[in-house]
Write a structure and sequence with these properties.
With 404 residues, this protein is α/β, with parallel strands linked by helices. It is 38% helix and 14% strand. The termini are far apart. The structure holds D-malate.
């Protein structure tokens, strides 16, 4: 018999969102007539922009011809798409060949762990997107789970609380994961805060992995959308990002990672070289159909559609946040982010999750799923049809949520 990768035994439960689904199913078995509203996983609900749909049809037709067919492409992505994405999202900040197109930010995060290997120390914001910690555990970067602390050994947790405005006291580690706009708290780091982060990374020889998957939700022009707006960031930071949320590509899959050529390991090797090696070894490039269709859609019409979708979800966020505020809850985020982070009076966020589910048939995400710092919070996602959002708010206002 083959021995199991012992790191899997360290993981606490299933991955957060499948675990929520499991509980959802269990609830539905007990209450088959329940009309659930899902404000749990941040999954987009509005149709693809028409410009993308038309481009997809066109590309699919071309693929059915001898002249238009294409097989394997460059693992790094279509050259023209790399140029376009760099030009639109990083004007004057990066070179197109520093940007690698992929099947999404989550997948790239896992591949980054593979590139770094298991001898690195990592620091995460607490709470944080669970992929950083779970993939580090699977890679063997961590020790065991310490039940009393609800933390893994060898992971540096940087608490993000209302008291520190969700910007942590930075701590030393080889790799610092930082997400802004933040999943789950919805906090957005200011320019000064990111300058501090970049300075800290330089002084401590760390690499920042900056997760900008929600950057397009920033509508305040004073807030940075990319780490590369900060001087010197190219020497210390990798950025992952995605079309999932702004273009509704959660199921379509397309994202990217920027690895600047200035970023070096201690032996002088460019990290860019190793990332190229990872992508050419374990990845065969994103689907050519969606890459070509996206390239054709990144025009005024497509970017206008993107803005419209973002405005729609931000309005949802406002509706949820306003309602919870009026009900007396302490809420965070939701202004330049699609998540509302809600303080509860419960000391167990799975209990709070169950209580909301039982009383309102609304699925949220328990804060502890993002780390011990989330234990007294639940997260509401603003992704949903407007009617469902309004119905959810009406249910919340009617419900007696005495435990939260
Ligand atoms: C979330 O709900 O935190 C995210 O949407 C999940 C993901 O993007 O993988």
């Amino acid at each position: 018999m083959v021995k199991r990768n012992k790191n899997f035994a360290k993981l606490q439960a299933g991955y957060l969102f499948p675990e929520i689904n499991r509980r959802k199913k269990e609830f539905m078995e007990k209450h088959p007539d329940a009309d659930l509203i899902s404000l749990g996983i941040g999954d987009t609900t509005e149709p693809l922009p028409q410009v993308v749909v038309e481009a997809l049809k066109e590309v699919a037709d071309e693929m059915g011809t001898v002249e238009g067919y294409s097989g394997y492409g460059d693992e790094q992505g279509l050259t023209e798409l790399r140029k376009k994405v760099a030009e639109i999202f990083y004007p004057g900040l990066i070179e197109a060949d520093e940007l690698f197109i992929s099947d999404g930010a989550k997948c790239d995060t896992g591949r980054l762990q593979m590139m770094f290997g298991n001898e690195m120390t990592i620091a995460v914001q607490d709470p944080s997107y669970p992929v950083y910690v779970d993939s580090a555990v699977i890679m063997g970067q961590t020790g065991s789970y310490v039940t009393e602390k609800k933390q893994f050994e060898n992971i540096v947790y940087m608490p993000c609380t209302a008291e520190n405005d969700f910007f942590p006291k930075l701590k030393k580690a080889d790799i610092i994961y930082f997400c802004s706009p933040n999943n789950p708290t919805g906090a957005v780091a200011t320019k000064e805060q990111l300058e501090h982060l970049v300075r800290f990374a330089k002084e401590n020889d760390a690499i920042i992995v900056f997760d900008a998957a929600y950057a397009e939700f920033i509508t305040d022009p004073n807030l940075p959308k990319t780490i590369y707006e900060i001087e010197g960031a190219k020497e210390v930071a990798i950025e992952v990002s995605s079309f999932s949320k702004p273009f509704g590509y959660t199921g379509v899959r397309l994202g990217w990672t920027v690895v600047p050529k200035e970023l070096k390991y201690s032996d002088g090797t460019a990290v860019h070289n190793d990332w190229n090696r990872i992508m050419t070894t374990v990845f065969n490039g994103a689907s050519n159909i969606i890459q070509k269709a996206t390239l054709r859609s990144l025009n005024d019409e497509g970017l206008g559609e993107m803005k419209r979708l973002i405005a729609y979800y931000l309005q949802n966020a406002k509706i949820i946040k306003d309602a919870l505020d009026k009900m007396g809850y302490q809420t965070y985020g939701g202004d330049n982010a699609p998540y509302i982070w809600v303080k509860t009076k419960s000391d167990n966020s799975w209990k709070a999750f169950n209580h909301i589910l039982e009383e309102t048939q609304i699925v949220t995400t328990p804060g502890s799923g993002f780390g011990p710092g989330g234990e007294t919070y639940v997260r509401f996602s603003a992704f949903g049809h407007r009617k469902k959002i309004e119905e959810a708010v009406a249910r919340l206002q009617k419900a007696v949520l005495e435990h939260i």
